[in-house]
């Protein structure tokens, strides 16, 4: 008898996301699962639950709805204050996103609002975002700093992430993105030096990953190489905002450094895609940002051909995609880019988890994995992206307990 302190039963279809020979979703019809101390201890057919599991704790009845692993969002920017709704309206009128990144506008404007906000406000804002993630079935996020852009304010952003992880049920994996843009009014060289000499060594205990935006509007290839090279030497795992708005060396840098993820990749070349696949990097695609900025379709065929794993992320941020809904991102990847429902489901679970070094632990349901799942009102897991911009998540389970909205 397996002992458990939480169980879920009557999942019409339970997608384990552990591929079976005939089913990439490894689904169990009329499935059930059991957990102890926040980890899955048993997954199987509902009819075997009672004979195999001794439950002392809560039982959730999915009543025939589908159950999937808690979604894993591998690219988010949740620590910010202020609004850029007016810039959104401007873009709708035809102004380009790039044209908005000058002077005190765009990212620089969010940096100012974030610095001016008190830490309590920042925590409240980020915690509200965490709750929206959970409401939409996401249980793990990669969370970037990047709107502080100096030693004190980046430290504060990392502190906000720690507090949000403590105060909410969301798993938060912190990424230091001091190399988001050069902050307004600061000398480029001095800023890069402060990243390398001060911020990177100071933040290593707090941030697992280091990211940089390699793009004309942000950091040159030489600067990104210098920052990320130092980060790697200090023990950070690497992510790169690469070839989002124009072709560039971002994907090459990611491959050279054996990055865990190369993100966006709209303008990556076939050779770069091959190099990323060879390096074991995951492509983290951001369909929401691509949609709102009218970006081109990323080279999906080249990625398929090279067997480069494709994760799908919300890219929650105040500029290009103010959304915590990973299921909306999945819908957009299907409709706008022709990815299949199975590809986007894998992209929002197993591939995203791999990019966070949580393969086998998050984004799947098997003994030993996090007892994180979403009960979704859909006919099959593949139908999730078919529902456009409506939240079909009935219940989110995080760490073996049903999450209650605040
Ligand atoms: O992922 N590429 C850079 N960063 C964000 C946008 C940030 C912003 O506009 O505030 C992105 O699209
Ligand atoms: Fe981003």
Question: How do the helices and strands line up, and which of them pair or pack?
Answer:
Layout: E1 2-15, E2 27-36, E3 39-45, H1 46-52, E4 53-61, E5 66-69, E6 71-76, H2 85-92, H3 107-116, H4 119-135, E7 138-144, H5 151-167, E8 171-179, H6 188-203, E9 209-214, H7 221-233, E10 237-242, H8 250-256, E11 261-264, H9 270-279, E12 282-285, H10 287-292, H11 300-306, E13 310-312, H12 326-337, H13 341-347, H14 350-355, E14 373-376, E15 393-398, E16 401-402
Bound molecules: N-(iminomethyl)-L-glutamic acid and fe (iii) ion.
The site of N-(iminomethyl)-L-glutamic acid has 12 residues, from helix 3.
What is the H-and-E element order?
EEEHEEEHHHEHEHEHEHEHEHHEHHHEEE
| Rounded radius of gyration (Å) | 21 Å
Give the class from helix and strand content and strand pairing: alpha/beta
Helical percentage: 25-40%
**Measured distance between first and last alpha carbons:** 36 Å
List low-pLDDT spans: none
Bound molecules: N-(iminomethyl)-L-glutamic acid, fe (iii) ion
As laid out across the biggest beta sheet, the strand order is 6-7-8-9-10-11-12-13
